[in-house]
Each structure stands twice: as C-alpha cells, then as structure tokens.
Amino acid sequence: MDNERICPPAVRGQMALFPAPYRLLERHAVAIRSRFQDDLTRLKPMLGQVQAEHCLGRAWRVSAMNMLALALAARDAAGQDLVDAAILDALPHRPVGVTSALNKAGWLAPDLDREVSLLPHAQRARPQPQPRSCEHCLSWGRNQICDGCRHWRRVYADQRGGCGRCGAGPLPLRNGRCRDCTRQRLRLGPDTDASTWRQLRFAGPSLGNGSATRRELADRPELSAPTVLEGQAAIFEIERDWRPLAGSLLPAPIPPVKALLADFARYTTENRWHQKVHEPSARVLRVAATWLGADTVFREEDIRAMHRAFGGKSRIGGLVAFLDQREQLVTSPPRRNSHEAFVQRTIAAFPPRISDELGTWVGVLRGTSRSHHRVTDYATLRHYLSYLATPLAAWTTRYTTLRQVTEADVTAAVTAVKGPRAHERAVAVRSLFRALKHAKLVFVDPTRGLRITRQELLPTTLAPDRLAGLLETSSNPATRLVLALVALHATSGTDLRNLVLSDVLLTRQQLLIRRPHGRHVVHLDDTTAALLHAWLRYRHRRWPRTFNSHLLVTQQTANATDPVCADYVYRRFDPAGLTLRAVRADRILDEARETEDPVHLVRVFGISITTAMKYIHTAHPHRGGPIPR
After folding, report:
1. What is the 3-state secondary structure (H, E, C) of 202-252?
2. Which of 382, 395, 472, 591 has the most CB within a 10 Å radius?
3. Tens digit of pLDDT for each residue in 149-176?
4. What span, in angstroms and rounded, lies between the C-alpha atoms of 600 and 588?
C-alpha cells in the first residue's frame, strides 16, 4: 500500500515559494516503494552493473533500492525532473553505488546549486576524512600522528633528535632509535641494526598501543648469541629452567644455527608436517641450538623440558627423532610407566617387613633374581595387587610378616568371593607365595593344596552376514590391511603393532612374526598380498623420509620410532561393529572345523598347543577328554 502522506508529489516545474521540509527515514521507503515500481525496474540493470563492479551482496541491493525510492520521492516532492545531489544528503544513509546508478540512468541533475529544505534532525552524509600517513612512523591511518606515536611523544618528549638507524628526525628517541625502529628491532632481532629500511604498516590498536605498548617497549637487555664455547665441557649437570625464555626476544641466529634450522625445515617439508606442528618445534630447536651450541649433543630431557616451558601443545617426538637421526641426541632413560608407578606406590604403603617381602615377589616375577622365571610385565603385577588388596589388608592387621599366613588364611581369602573373582585371587596368591618360597622367605607354601575350579569360556563364532563386506567398510589402506590380516590369518593386535619392514618378505609373499617364545611365518594369499603392496606404496608416498621402521605408522609415529598404539589397531574394527578378538577367534574356529589336528592350528596360526586344543574341543565336542587349561 502506498502512503500518500509521505512526500506528496508537487507540480512539475513549479517553484515553491517556501520549500516544504521533508523528513526522510528508512522505514518510509517500504511504504512508498510501490509508487515507483516502474522507475525502480528501469534502475535495476544499473544496480546490477554497480553490484558486479564492486562485488556487493544481496543486503546492499535491498538497501540501495530503498534509498533510490526515497530519492525519487524527494525529487517528486520538490517538483523536479532529475534527482539533485543535495537530495542524496537527506537520505538516512547512502550505500556505495547509489549515485553511480542514478548517473548511469541519466537521472542525476548536473546543477549542484539547487537546495532542498531539510529538517534540522535529518541525517546528512558527512564527508569522509582523507587517509594520511603518520608523520613519525609513516603508518597508514586517518590522523596526522597515530595513537602509538602520540603516546611515545609524551613518554620521550625530552629525547628528540635524528634516529641513529633510519636517520629520520627530529623525532622522540629511545636509546638513539625512533619508535618504528625500536619496535622493528624488538620483533625482528638485533641483526636489523645494520639496515636502514622501515616496515610500513597500518595504524591501529592492534599494533600495541596503550598498556600493550608500554609492556612491549619496556627496557630489555641487549641480547647477543650466547652459545657455548666449542669443546667446553660441563663440570656437572644441573636441571635447567627454560621458563624465562618462553616470551623473551630470541637473539639473531649465527650461521651454524641457521644451517641447523634450514635442515630441520627441509626435514619437516619432506615429511609433510603441518605448520602448527613445525613452528613450536622450530622455536625449541632455535633456542636449544643458540644457548647450547648447534653442533653439540642435546639431552632429550632438555628438549622436552623446553617444550613444556614454552607451552607447546603439539608432539615433540618429531624433533627428537630428527636430532637422533643426526646423532645429536642423548636419549632419556626409560621412564616408569603408570603400571610400574602403581606397583611401587602400593608396595610402599605396607608395613616395612611385608613391603620388603612384596618387593622380593616383584623382583622374582620381573626376573631380577637368580631364577629362570619368565619376566612378568607390570600390567599383570598391577592386576595381581588389585586381586590381593583385600587379603593383604586383612593379613596386615594380624601379622607382621607373610611367613605367618597359614593355609586356612589362604583358603578363607579365596573362598570369600565367587566365580571368576575367586580364580583371579587364587592365581595371584599362588604367584605370591611360590615366589617367596623360591626366594626362601617362607618355609611352607600355604597355597600348595589350593584347588579352584572355574567355568571355561569357549570360543564363539560370528554370523556369516556380519563378516560379509568387511573390507568394504573402509578405504584406508592401513585399515584394509589390518582387517585382512586378522580376518584371514588371525594375526593378533600385538603382532600387528610389532611388525617391521624387515619382516615383510615380498618375493615369497610372507610375513615374519617375532614373538618372545619363537617365530611364526604367515603365508599371504593374493588378496592380502595386494593390500600389503597398496599400503607400502601409500606409506612411501605419504612419509617418504620417515625414520620409523614399523610396518604400520601414523602421522604421529612417522616422526618417531615408536609403534602405533594398541587402540589404533583395535579401532579399525569399529565401523563394522566388531572387535579384533572376535574376528580372530572366528577365523581360528573356522579352521578348526576343517580339521581335528591341533598341530595344524599351531602351524597355521602360531598359537600354543593348549589354545589349539580349546578350539578343537569347541569345533568337535564329540571328542572326549577334558578341555585343557
């Protein structure tokens, strides 16, 4: 609906004795756009040209149409044939290109002496100030002197003269340099003193004005390259605190440091490192090479401590591997894992005598004593301690040594729980007292007559439809290879993680699996061999310079020498809704159905004879005899 009360048109060509004031607001444009539908239609091609020239969007086009409707209404209200440029000043706002569109259509009056009476509160378009450069730092802005230089002039008003670096002046100086040269030196290093060029920039608060400028321009010591002397040996090693260097100015790198950084840049480029991973590692390397020497042998503890001090969130293993390749790294002693720390912490909480006996037990299982006992990992020891937590707490309150534990105490502790928990506790307590008996710390083994039966869990098979299309669940070459090795050859997750490139025998289509108790050869079928070839090609194309010798590598392990984590292998089966153990058991059970010979399973899959007998009894329950444990 057209509101006739808004800008009623006057007689064309009739000059008004008293020009009527009009108030032009944006909400009026919606009410009168239907009045100028034909005129706006003729202006659309001109608006399209302006929109294409300036790459403007849909919002600009809507706003421009509203402003053109108001301009045409004001033109008719003044009784004119063309739009006066003064009318455009009465618009609430004038989008870019409105004047150009009217000029292209020939509707803009060339005479600029006409006047249109406006209300005092009408919003006029003010002339835009012309941009100019700061007279002090030459930054591009709108003021004669930018805010940063104005603050600099107040602080260093008593030090005026010619800049000792760029020669500009007279300007306020600090240590003989102007604000622009001082800021440039702080950001680029002392090696810029030999040049006279100045970096042009835009003025604004992002350059560090106000309090940020005061912090940035605070007095700092002049840093040089404090490298160690060549051939200088350390009297003793101390732990360094690298935190003061986290936000400090780095000295100018000397030529050996520059060469080391260039080699590291080539290394990261060849291995396709992301920029966010390269930059923190390059800063750590630059600081370490500057303060310790580019040709020295770095300690891994220093590299990791420096990375932590600088707040690095990415992995530092890639830099460690790079230095190790160059034979410039002293590796750290193996750190205690979480399982070992738990075992040591738990044992230390017991009374002294019992704690010593538990420590002897751990030493026997770890192979530190004179015994031929197979080495037990700390993860198993942690499970044993969790199974023995309740019995040990009860015995500690009654006894001062484990020699006082009787057979009745052991039986009561084991029978206090039922099912699998009873068997677990029996295994742990039997291991404890057998080790103490071996170390001659107890006279009689109280677990000698202990017998606990348990329900044996037999292997289960999977439905054929769940295995159908397993290789099509992923297009990743590593995932497809893992799926094939498990589903067709029953390879375990530990074997997959420990495979190295030297274990791949391509000419024979074989894989050599190294295990603590022996070796097992996997004869590959054509499908698995093709998937292995595809993965090796992808691996070489993706990480051509990797130092990792393992067959399976990821973006994280390609820059180190560690194998992939166990979770990486097990997650390959998540898209299919399966688990690695279930697929592996199904493959062995399927082979057991085809034969009743357990030796055949041992040769094909490299499993123990006990495990093979379990699968034989499951596949052929008619065979007599108990299932071996």
Report:
1. ECCHHHCCHHHHHHHCCCCCCCCCCCCCCCCCCCCCCCCCCHHHCCCCCCC
2. 395
3. 888 888 887 888 888 888 887 888 888 8
4. 11
Measured distance CA(327)–CA(321) in Å, rounded: 10
- Structure tokens, 31: 């009410």
Residue position matching structure tokens 């800021």: 183
**For residue 274, is it left (φ>0), alpha (ψ between -120 and 50) or beta?**
beta
pLDDT digits (tens, 9 = 90+) for 392-405: 999 999 999 999 99
CA distance 568 to 573: 10
Other Cβ atoms less than 10 A from the Cβ of 550: the count is 21
- Extended strands (E) in 407-517: 504-505, 510-515
Helix (H) or strand (E) segment spanning residue 160: strand 160-161
Span of 21-25, 368-372, 545-549, 613-617 with lowest mean pLDDT: 368-372
Contacts of 168 (CB under 8 A, 6+ apart): 162, 178, 198
Summarize pLDDT for 211-229 with one digit per residue, the tens: 434 444 344 443 444 455 5
What's phi and psi for 171, nearest 5 deg?
-135, 160
Torsion-angle region of residue 477: left (phi > 0), alpha (psi -120 to 50) or beta? Answer: alpha
Spatial contact of 276 and 314, defined as CB atoms under 8 Å apart: yes
The dihedral sign for the CA sequence 266, 268, 271, 275: negative
> What is the model's pLDDT at position 247?
65
pLDDT of residue 298: 84
Give 548's contacts (C-beta < 8 A, 6+ positions apart). 321, 557, 558, 559, 560, 561, 562
First to last CA, the chain: 92
Regarding beta strands 160-161 and 510-515, do their DSSP bridges make them parallel or antiparallel, or are they unpaired?
unpaired
Residue type, 520: H
Beta carbons of 109 and 82 less than 8 angstroms apart: yes
Cα separation, 213 vs 334, in Å, equals 46
Tell how strand 298-299 and strand 329-330 pair up.
parallel
Residue-by-residue DSSP string for 527-543: HHHHHHHHHHHHHHHH-
- The answer to whether residues 307 and 316 touch, using CB atoms and an 8 Å cutoff, is yes
The token pair that represents 280 in the structure block:
């923190």
Of residues 3, 65, 8, 5, the one with CA closest to residue 31: 3
- Average pLDDT over every residue of 375-399: 90
User: Is the four-CA dihedral 577, 581, 586, 591 of positive or negative sign?
Assistant: positive
d(CA 219, CA 158) in angstroms, rounded, equals 17
- Written as six digits, the tokens of 175 are 């240590």
